[in-house]
DNA sequence: TAGTGGTCTAGACCACCAC
DNA sequence: TGGTGGTCTAGACCACTAT
């Protein structure tokens, strides 16, 4: 093949402001070139990219090299490929989860779903939950430390998947110490009427403090499947531990699809914020 | 080549609890096999994996297929490869950022660095900051909306990189409206004695409310470089907008390396938490 | 059926690291 | 110097989608 290696297609684009040196690998330069086309709007969100064969001819490289370049952008979450259809630029729709007050709103509560419903309704979306499961699980070291029980002790796990407009949104799993679960009737594979938080409060276990921990990581294969995540989408891991005046009551682990979720805290006096249409 | 395709190496490992079906792609099955070995501790954090050539022989596939499998695990953040050295299982060291009170601690303040120092000292680490930069930047739509200025208006940007024990930790960029910056002396390419927050308060711009937004995404190439992120490491994006009783004062954008950071909020009455050694 | 991306092979040469 | 991962080629066949 008469390749005129590393020339024409890159003219004027390789030595742009932020990045690519002349000596970078071919696939990185192709990735960079496509990234720029997306960033500048030459290829817009939702648009199809050239096919792999077209890119192969356009840049005069092997298909494998084209796929390496597309892989880079896929891992950055910029594009998404589907067999038989093509490769498109991904578009983002962000939903907001108000951590500070999401659970304390006093609505028609039904398990942990009330807050979620209210949030979604406020944002004009249709929230549902699916796949409720109640299980008994042994405490991992992390769970044991946070709930002040011994490692391996039985915990009650109540898990649900949240969907918005038919799309998976987050996976939530709440853990309760066994003694509290028995006292408050959490050992049912159904919704707790009025919600778990009220059931706890009714027996004197009132939640008065929260510790929230937020981290991020790449999803495990089953999480990617359940959340329908495409390559290059991280998850936001949100762990809330709640306390009464005496002890930890509950640990709720939420795995948010990173490309569709934003967690918000509103703290202090936000008069100026609310006045200007901030609080949705 | 006499390949006995898809047999021996997988016996007893392919149809484990959560996952791999017999019909999955070869490279996925190899990835799954290695993932299990890591998960079960057969290969521990810090250990070296077999070389690509060894894996190629072990599974009787082409080297390219081995690399596809390793790519999967790399994108999950489980392993890290270095040219000439090999491939190792990554280990995690998590540091904690206490969002609720990080900025309100009244120590020997020096720009935005006081809170960071205090946090790191509490965790027994050595915090430093590098690469301070003061710039004037036009407001993007996102910045304009949050700071209640017009798009394109000039904003003062004061940026630093945070390092812990010599390792990059997070990138921080604070934006201030131009009128406040002039009034409070923020247009200097140096630290503001006593800290910016005090300088604002001294002129009557006291911060009394915060809105924090947390999202995650894959890093852009320059962020990955500055933070020294390896493949498959997302970033945690933390945006804090602060308010006086009248208006937004400041927007601070922090990009945390996702594999080394945890953001924590402590809310409400946490007597029970503190009593049991919770508050570090 | 034609075209797309998905998987896989069997080589090659290069850059970096430890010895 | 030998071994490692990094890059790249030039094919092949398959699975899925659109028409």
TrEMBL record, chains A, B:
The protein in question is named: GntR family transcriptional regulator
InterPro entries per UniProt: Bact_HTH_transcr_reg (IPR050679), Chorismate_lyase_/UTRA_dom_sf (IPR028978), Tscrpt_reg_HTH_GntR (IPR000524), UTRA (IPR011663), WH-like_DNA-bd_sf (IPR036388), WH_DNA-bd_sf (IPR036390)
Region annotated Disordered, chain positions:
1-22
Question: Can you supply a Gene Ontology BP term from the record?
Answer: negative regulation of DNA-templated transcription
GO molecular function terms attached to this record: DNA binding; DNA-binding transcription factor activity
Superkingdom of the organism of origin: Bacteria
- This protein's UniProt keywords: DNA-binding, Transcription, Transcription regulation
Q: Which PANTHER family match?
A: GNTR-FAMILY TRANSCRIPTIONAL REGULATOR, MANNOSYL-D-GLYCERATE TRANSPORT/METABOLISM SYSTEM REPRESSOR MNGR-RELATED
What positions does the domain HTH gntR-type occupy?
24-92
Q: Name one Pfam family in it.
A: GntR
């Amino acid at each position: 093949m008469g390749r005129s290696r590393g020339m024409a297609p890159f003219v004027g684009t390789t030595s742009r402001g932020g990045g690519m040196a002349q000596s970078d690998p071919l696939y990185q330069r192709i990735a960079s070139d496509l990234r720029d086309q997306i960033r500048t709007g030459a290829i817009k969100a939702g648009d199809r990219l050239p096919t792999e064969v077209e890119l192969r001819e356009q840049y005069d490289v092997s298909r494998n090299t084209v796929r390496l370049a597309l892989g880079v952008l896929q891992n950055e979450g910029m594009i998404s490929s589907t067999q038989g259809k093509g490769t498109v630029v991904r578009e983002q729709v962000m939903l907001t989860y108000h951590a500070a007050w999401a659970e304390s709103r006093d609505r028609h509560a039904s398990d942990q779903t009330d807050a979620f419903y209210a949030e979604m309704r406020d944002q004009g979306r249709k929230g549902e939950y699916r796949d409720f499961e109640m299980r008994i699980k042994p405490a991992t070291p992390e769970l044991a430390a946070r709930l002040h029980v011994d490692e391996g002790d039985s915990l009650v796990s109540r898990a649900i998947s949240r969907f918005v407009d038919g799309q998976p949104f987050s996976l939530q799993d709440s853990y309760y110490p066994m003694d509290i679960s028995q006292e408050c009737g959490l050992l049912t594979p159904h919704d707790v009427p009025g919600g778990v938080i009220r059931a706890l409060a009714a027996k004197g276990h009132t939640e008065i403090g929260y510790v929230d921990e937020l981290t991020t990581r790449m999803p495990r294969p089953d999480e990617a499947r359940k959340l329908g995540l495409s390559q290059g989408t991280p998850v936001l891991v949100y762990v809330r531990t709640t306390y009464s005046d005496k002890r930890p009551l509950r640990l709720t682990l939420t795995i948010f699809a990173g490309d569709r979720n934003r967690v918000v805290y509103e703290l202090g006096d936000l008069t100026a914020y609310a006045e200007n249409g901030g609080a949705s």
